[in-house]
Design goal:
This protein is α/β, with parallel strands linked by helices. Helix content is about 40%, strand content about 20%.
Amino acid sequence: MTSINDLLNLIKDNYPLAEVYSLLTRISIHHRMQGSTGIWNAVNEVKEFLENNGLETKIYTVMNGEKLGLTTAPIGWDLKFGEVVVREDERVIAKYNTIEHPTLVAAHSPGGSGSGKIVLGGLDKLDGLDGDVLLTSDSPYLVYSKAVEKGFKAIIWYSPSRNPLGVPYTGLFFTPEDWKKASIPVITLPYRIVSRIITKTVGRSRLSIEWNISIDRHEKGLPILETCLGDGEYIVTGIAHICHPKPGAHDNASGSATLAGNAVALARIFNKINANTRLCLYWVPEYTGTIALFKNGLLSTEKVVGVLNLDMVGSKQDITGSSLHIIRSMVEYMGALTPLTKLAVEYVYMSSRTFHGQPAIGNIRFDETPYGNGSDHDVFLVNNIEGVMLNEWPSLNYHTDLDTSDTIGYREVYMIGLASSLALSLSLNPSITKGLSDYVKNYFGNLITWYAMEAVKRGFNRSFVESRISRLLGNSLKKAIIWTENKGLLYLERPCCTDYPRYIGVSHISIRTYSRERDLEIYRLVQRYKPLSMLISTYYPAYLNGLHGINDIIEFFVAEELVDISKFRCYGAEGIGCLEKVLGTVNEWLMEKGLIKK
């Protein structure tokens, strides 16, 4: 048994910071789109790094077009070169190319050359437009087939929410079937120039664009990289998605490199941790690779303790505007990993002192928040496994070509590397430090108090929030205590109710797939009410486990996320009635697809 401080010092002595930072910069030079050669190159960078440090690795391949529940692995696609010229009347007002702006062409876009007149439109505005190049901020995937049908030559996509100076990234994620019908390119432009185009279009100037795009197609598949330590019965996992466009330093070369540092540091001290638990770390194409881990039997839901997901970490917060968030697991699937991650981050980041010598937050901002979706921990949660994420948000250069490695800090990478290594170490063997079981018990007690206080602060019914959170916490607390005290049992036998439907998919619910196949209104509602995305895509399938009905799930969601649904209106209903109708239509779709059984 050792102290937390001694364990942290052991990690410090073995964390390869200089190598990790170098790896981060090397990952960021590759154009790592899902289905690209670049993502293979980046995976090989990590593989070489691990093997040079004595770790064994495996690479698994997800085939292009492989069916993965409610999603399909995208086509093999490489961008060779692209350039565009924007003109007002005959005067050039902007030029871009993919050497300087790798995000200029949407992932999985067809190539080709052409020119046309720019016109503003979207999903609800495609008829009677005076132009043949569609300028839109709507989902390029959902608008694509309609634009082709209407005879548009190309699509220009923009995002008013991204850094207006950066060329934004988007992906079409075309399947082989989609590709058969794909015929026009999708180009992205920075909002700075788009706002000018929109103004000039209203002023009746003639705005046009010329493009020349060259791409390659292949069938290399998508890589999943694995390294494991130990041979215990149960598995603690760490994950980072290695995909995204060049440079993609914050998102997510940072998480990928940090996870590699975790692997090396923990390999060097593994025999001193005395863990009888296995540690497996994965570098994946986001969602696609994680879903494949479960669908293809590489991970068993019966043996995984939990996952620590590293997604966008280590930035210079004065540049990115970020704060580090410890994003909790969904309450029903919490175990020991959530509180132990909080303990580790606080221990590392409380690096300052008050006037009276008490530990205090240093100059790196961090906090703890309820579960939030949008990354690979979602897939673990949908499979009823604890999922915690360390993530920085907001991020000034998110999903643009300005997300460069000079926005990532050397010291910041070191601190997140230490904190995540410490969290994994404590989770592998909670008995290594005295008192962790008591810490975990108190964490769960304080969580009820946190929700009660937040309910009052945000104007919610405190009794409602407390009662719903308490219902969810019972099994979680038992699981966490059993793990921290004897590591003998993970999953308690739980009663199930056969009169409820049961979700049997391995993935979160894809809103774009649903919107394309059934109802565009869901897409519009998600744009209007952002929390709906979380309810539909992850809360619903995660809590549709045979124990809860639709109304229960909605109430758990409202309480856990403290979401005010009083202004939600849809399908002729409002508030909880609106959400019941939304989930009712999604439920029918899942039954049609055979993903829900009675």
